[in-house]
Amino acid sequence: MSAYAEHIKTVCERFDKALADTGFDSTLIYSGQPRVDFLDDNAPPYRVNPLFKYWVPVTESPKSAIFYRKGSQRPTVYLFQAKDFWHAPVNVPEEEWQQYVDLKIIDDLSVMTDDIGSALANAAFIGEDFAEPVHSWNVKARNPQNLIDHLHFHRAVKTEWEVENLREANKLAAKAHVAAKEAFYAEKSELEIHHAYLAAIDFRESQVPYNSIVALNSHSAILHYDVYDTEPPKQFRSFLIDAGARYRGYCADITRSYAYEEGFYADLVEAMDNAQRDLLSEIKPGVNYYDLHVSMHLKVAQILSDFGFISGDAQSIYDKGYTSAFMPHGLGHFIGLQVHDVGGFLKSDDGSSYERSERHPFLRLLRDIEEGQVFTIEPGLYVVDQLLEEHKDSGDINWDKVDELRPYGGVRIEDSIVVGKDGNNENLTRDAFKALGAE
């Protein structure tokens, strides 16, 4: 059986269990449609419902839907192809997935609702319903939280077909990262580096899964920096790039940091890279991700001590809260159909969940690690004056050393990991760079 055949079998089984446990006979998953801007008739780029592309690798077909009856083991895909002389028709090539669904091409949503008939009234609708006629469809429930929680809990464990797609997404992103790195050392502007990234993989800006972070020098300390200066800086010091790619709807999310020349910042990047590799060795089923996050903080604390930013041992630096000022974000997150894939707080498929950590409120993942999960590992260290303000009177912090780092901004290293048995994990990101001879 092919990887996709196994995948859709698993998806059917997960939906069967979710529908049975939540009291629904069927589900209608709407792909979504563009929503125009306020007081305008133009729409931002369309993004497909992730639970639609969970079934089939179709990402550019708005107003389509999937209807699935519990226990049927075969969904019906209603692929919308409008009669429209304004826009190019949606091109859906013949592929393997079409062997495992009942595919119906429609040009009017009423054709679909007529086809489903009275069964629509017992269906759970999943998707956006801001527009007509979708808003008025007679369904049993709209986006029932118990059903969505059930599905999200289990899709944290990826099928082999999903992992294959994630591998390909990482290969694309790694290729683009190499081009961006070369543009940095060629002293290009942030915008030019961004263009080099897209050109390397023939992507439009709307095709990347999130706004790329292309940050030179002090901009690296802005965690979601996406401004892109059009002129190169007078002096090149550092480069942080956090950028991804998509393949069949699955996402890559990679961060790398580079020093323009040898010295202090280059040594810091190497230290963070070594710390990240050490963290990777701690990943195995049964470990709680929160504990991994704390381990990361202790490693960052050791770097702060080793480089003379803060006096004290790693444990005391962490206990006093200093690391949160230099490393405010979470260690990582699930990744898959979405960059920040869902389910990180769910304890079980009944919707019970973990409370956000008061100590580490921005951590997106609190579950125990399981075989088949895919998540990112992205430790960092930055000069963020807003966060350092709390410690302005501390005698433990070497402010001259902080000032030395400030023009460089910060450093972050990020990989995506597939959890295997007994710590035998797959690093999708580093493997992709190795295949290019770039790691």
From TrEMBL:
<dbReference type="InterPro" id="IPR048819">
    <property type="entry name" value="PepQ_N"/>
</dbReference>
<keyword id="KW-0645">Protease</keyword>
<keyword id="KW-0479">Metal-binding</keyword>
<keyword id="KW-0464">Manganese</keyword>
<keyword id="KW-0224">Dipeptidase</keyword>
<feature type="binding site">
    <location>
        <position position="414"/>
    </location>
    <ligand>
        <name>Mn(2+) 2</name>
    </ligand>
</feature>
<dbReference type="InterPro" id="IPR001131">
    <property type="entry name" value="Peptidase_M24B_aminopep-P_CS"/>
</dbReference>
<feature type="binding site">
    <location>
        <position position="414"/>
    </location>
    <ligand>
        <name>Mn(2+) 1</name>
    </ligand>
</feature>
<comment type="similarity">
    <text>Belongs to the peptidase M24B family. Bacterial-type prolidase subfamily.</text>
</comment>
<feature type="binding site">
    <location>
        <position position="333"/>
    </location>
    <ligand>
        <name>Mn(2+) 1</name>
    </ligand>
</feature>
<dbReference type="Pfam" id="PF00557">
    <property type="entry name" value="Peptidase_M24"/>
</dbReference>
<dbReference type="InterPro" id="IPR036005">
    <property type="entry name" value="Creatinase/aminopeptidase-like"/>
</dbReference>
<dbReference type="InterPro" id="IPR052433">
    <property type="entry name" value="X-Pro_dipept-like"/>
</dbReference>
<dbReference type="InterPro" id="IPR029149">
    <property type="entry name" value="Creatin/AminoP/Spt16_N"/>
</dbReference>
<feature type="binding site">
    <location>
        <position position="253"/>
    </location>
    <ligand>
        <name>Mn(2+) 1</name>
    </ligand>
</feature>
<feature type="binding site">
    <location>
        <position position="253"/>
    </location>
    <ligand>
        <name>Mn(2+) 2</name>
    </ligand>
</feature>
<dbReference type="InterPro" id="IPR000994">
    <property type="entry name" value="Pept_M24"/>
</dbReference>
<feature type="domain" description="Peptidase M24">
    <location>
        <begin position="164"/>
        <end position="420"/>
    </location>
</feature>
<dbReference type="Pfam" id="PF21216">
    <property type="entry name" value="PepQ_N"/>
</dbReference>
<feature type="binding site">
    <location>
        <position position="242"/>
    </location>
    <ligand>
        <name>Mn(2+) 2</name>
    </ligand>
</feature>
<keyword id="KW-0482">Metalloprotease</keyword>
<keyword id="KW-0378">Hydrolase</keyword>
<protein>
    <recommendedName>
        <fullName>Xaa-Pro dipeptidase</fullName>
        <ecNumber>3.4.13.9</ecNumber>
    </recommendedName>
</protein>
<feature type="binding site">
    <location>
        <position position="378"/>
    </location>
    <ligand>
        <name>Mn(2+) 1</name>
    </ligand>
</feature>
<dbReference type="InterPro" id="IPR022846">
    <property type="entry name" value="X_Pro_dipept"/>
</dbReference>
<feature type="domain" description="Xaa-Pro dipeptidase N-terminal">
    <location>
        <begin position="3"/>
        <end position="153"/>
    </location>
</feature>
<comment type="function">
    <text>Splits dipeptides with a prolyl residue in the C-terminal position.</text>
</comment>
